[in-house]
Amino acid sequence: MSQETTLILFKPDAVKKNLVGTVLSRFEKEGFVIRGIKMMSLSDEILAEHYAHIAEMPFFPSVRNFMQESPVIALALAGEGVIGKVRDLLGPTDSTEAAAGTIRGDFGDKSGDSKMRNVCHASDGPDTAAAELKRFFQDGEVCER
Ligand code: ADP
């Protein structure tokens, strides 16, 4: 497996429930290292770009509102095979379908918003990771480790 860097967003549900440290410690316990981290409020423009693949879905306006409920925390996380491993640690999109022990299974919404309030976003492949890291971090904000 190769050395990779992925883009993670702690979504507003994680931020508002003070779950950031708990989830981040799961990533660090896997041996992954932080290359960049910052809190930011997401504009309509960045959300339209980030969620272009769901922009035509009827639930997109709800997702945009949700992602603007509070600032998010963007994380550049590095390690061997980190892109796929973090997706596995998260579990599937719908928190009610995510197994206990996964981040979405343990901390995602279980009462009606389970497909939306699912704790974290994580890049789904190397090309997406490169584009998303560029989208959320400026030159120089992702450090060498
Ligand atoms: P993932 O984040 O698991 O890769 P997608 O890229 O398919 O999932 O969707 C992006 C985000 O849009 C999801 O994480 C979730 O917050 C939201 N979402 C996806 N499907 C739905 C849905 N059917 N209803 C409400 N929100 C959804």
In summary, what is this structure?
This protein is of the alpha+beta class. It has seven helices and four strands; from the N terminus they run βααβααβααβα.
What does this structure look like?
- With 145 residues, the chain is α+β, with helices and mostly antiparallel strands.
- It has a single domain, classed as Nucleoside diphosphate kinase-like domain (Alpha-Beta Plaits, 2-Layer Sandwich), CATH 3.30.70.
- It is 38% helix and 19% strand.
- It has helices spanning 12-16, 20-29, 44-50, 60-67, 82-90, 103-107, 126-136; strands at residues 3-10, 33-40, 72-80, 120-122.
- The chain has a 4-stranded antiparallel sheet.
- The longest helix is centred in the last third of the chain and has 11 residues, at 126-136.
- The chain is globular.
- Bound molecules: adenosine-5'-diphosphate (ADP).
- Adenosine-5'-diphosphate binds next to loops.
Across the major sheet, the strand order is 2-3-1-4
| Beta strands, count | 4
The share of residues in extended strands comes to: 15-25%
Shape: globular
Residue runs with pLDDT of under 50 for 5 or more positions: none
Mean pLDDT: 98
What small molecules are bound in this structure? adenosine-5'-diphosphate
Radius of gyration: 14 Å
Decide which structural class fits the backbone.
alpha+beta
Total count of helical runs of at least 4 residues = 7
**What's the domain count?**
1
- Level-1 CATH class name: Alpha Beta
**Reported CATH architecture:** 2-Layer Sandwich
CATH evolutionary superfamily: Nucleoside diphosphate kinase-like domain
**What is the helix content?**
25-40%
Intertermini distance: 18 Å
